[in-house]
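Structure record:
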Amino acid sequence: MTVQTAEAPTGAGVDVVGLERRALAVREHVLAIGAGPIGTHVGGSLSAADILVALYFDVLRVRPDEPRWSGRDHFLLSKGHASAALYSTLAERGFLPREELATYGRSEGRLMAHPTLSVPGVEFATGSLGHGLSLGVGLALAARRAVLPNRVYVLLGDGELQEGSVWEAAMSAAHLGLDNLTAVVDRNRLQINGSTEDRMRLEPLTDKWRAFGWNASVVDGHDFARLVPALRSAPGSGRPTVLVADTVKGRGVRHLEHRKQGHFAKLSPAAYERALAALRAAA
């Protein structure tokens, strides 16, 4: 398969080293959660980590001490099964204590396997695949009608694009001219039962989005020097924007990369130590 090259700009003023340090911390948290009592969706959390760090540590206007601040930008994790990556990013950003990550999936805690509104920084309960973009359309339309500068970002899985409701939302967003809406596709090319192209072919993906009336480009989802400027890009074209982020499932843990077996994992103590050592060795 021919992989499209990145079309997004490279920009100055990106703290690549600082973002990489944050992303390493997020991935360490994800592995620790994966070694917890119920496990987690490790592979897709690792592939999305850099996107989340770029958003929360550079792009999004948020106030961790005031999560419902009216001037905030909105973020929705449509691929809600990657909650471990979102919770870990929110903890690093100061929305919740890092220590709380150890309560993931426990009945007495609030960090469920899919995001819930009880968690500071979570806008909607998500994870029923195919619905996040519709919610983003609603938020973007509300902001425009209220003449507010709030931007809306939605992170989707690529397997999720097999849901028809995604394309209904895409059609609506373009029809309404929601240029304050940015969708990001975590294009790791794997879903729970194998390759996305074997299950339901998505390519040519950017052409599909353009045909629906979106500005569409491809960006390396692990290269902060390209990813951050692409996410920062100012609205104003009269069209919504989608970034197809070329990523690697299991990114950072070499023996988990490009493997569907890492989609969900409950790591044994030995498997956790091996994965953590591999992650730190690659950093």
